[in-house]
Design a protein that fits this description.
Blueprint lengths: L1 H21 L3 H21 L6 H29 L6 H22 L9 H27 L1
Length: about 150
């Protein structure tokens, strides 16, 4: 029971983290990403990248953040759902569906912060969900062999 409660709290906390990021205005969001973008710009320059390192770094960092947020959410959601739903496929499908639904809500929240919602970002978030599904499948297959 304690583990179930802990997983529920972890899911709620992670959703709050995701939604709080979406409620930030453009300037606050850019400030939050600046450190990682600066590092990536330096790496790209050191590797001899001749294109617009600023634009590339911004896109990579921001989209990677979307993927990471929803990868973690789907994993947490799967861990919680699988405590109630013992069939792997059902638990995985439900966790993925809830995570993609959360991605849709997340994008809608960006309208409040005047950043604008994007179907493309929901698809990128869904890529994180898909990666989590693959990770759980690999883990599930590996643990069944042992």
């Amino acid at each position: 029971m304690r583990k179930t409660v802990a997983l529920a709290v972890a899911n709620i906390a992670w959703l709050a983290f995701i939604f709080s990021n979406s409620l930030k205005d453009r300037a606050a969001s850019a400030d939050q990403s600046e450190g990682a973008e600066g590092f990536l710009r330096r790496v790209l320059t050191a590797l001899g990248f001749s294109g617009n390192t600023e634009a590339v770094a911004e896109i990579v960092v921001r989209k990677a953040a979307h993927i990471f947020e929803f990868f973690v959410l789907c994993l947490l959601m799967y861990l919680l759902v699988s405590r109630f739903c013992k069939q792997y496929r059902s638990a995985c499908l439900l966790a993925a569906a809830v995570s993609v639904f959360a991605a849709s809500i997340d994008e809608s929240l960006q309208l409040i912060s005047k950043r604008g919602a994007s179907v493309k970002d929901v698809l990128i978030d869904s890529a994180g969900v898909a990666l989590a599904v693959v990770a759980t499948a690999v883990f599930n297959k590996h643990t069944k062999k042992q």
